[in-house]
Amino acid sequence: MPAFSEEKLREVQKIIARYPEGKQKSALLPLLHLAQDEFGGWLDTPVMDYVASLLQIEPIEVYEVATFYSMYNLKPVGKYVFEVCQTGPCMINGSDQIIDYIKHRLDISVGETSADGMFTLKTVECLGACGYAPMMQLGKFYKEHLTREKVDAIIDECRKNAAVNN
Ligand code: FES
User: What is the pLDDT of residues 15-49, one digit of tens each?
Assistant: First the structure.
């Protein structure tokens, strides 16, 4: 069974304390984020079971939420996850071509991770940045008005950062 460090457990208690007594389930989303960050970037079943035990809820209640939101990864992902929006406004501004270009550049399909373990491509629904279409989320950042050139630059930047941090 995975387990948070003492320090992370203190963070867990702080998150739970934001909600009224008996409503600890409300802490589920932030705890899943914490768990995803802590346990390798994705939510394995034992990790979800661990989160359920922390909140004293049934594992199924965690699975329901984790499988609903695209921001949770249910299988291992690369160091960088490209979450390209494919909802209407992004679609009519060329998100399909951007997705195809990323597939071609990284030699992967949607849902796959590049052979070097560096990049994962996901498609997601509207990220609330329709005015900047086509766009994607990369970690905590939005990458907007995407073009092939911008995608190339993003891939290069990720590779450079990965090399520096190794
Ligand atoms: S449709 Fe892509 S951000 Fe809204």
Answer: 999 999 999 999 999 999 999 999 999 999 999 99
- Indicate whether residue 85 lines ligand 1 (CB < 6 A): yes
Report d(CA 46, CA 2) in Å as an integer. 7
Between CA 119 and CA 110 the distance in angstroms is: 11
Domains in the chain and their CATH numbers?
6-68 (1.10.10), 80-164 (3.40.30.10)
Q: How far apart are CA 61 and CA 90, in angstroms?
A: 32
User: Ligand 1: distance of its center to the CA of 25 in Å?
Assistant: 29
pLDDT in tens, 89-130: 999 999 999 999 999 999 999 999 999 999 999 999 999 999
pLDDT, residue 1, reads 81
From the CA of 126, give the closest atom in ligand 1. 4
pTM value is 0.89
Closest-lying ligand 1 atom to the alpha carbon of residue 86: 2
Structure tokens at 107: 């030699």
- 130 C-beta closer than 6 A to ligand 1: yes
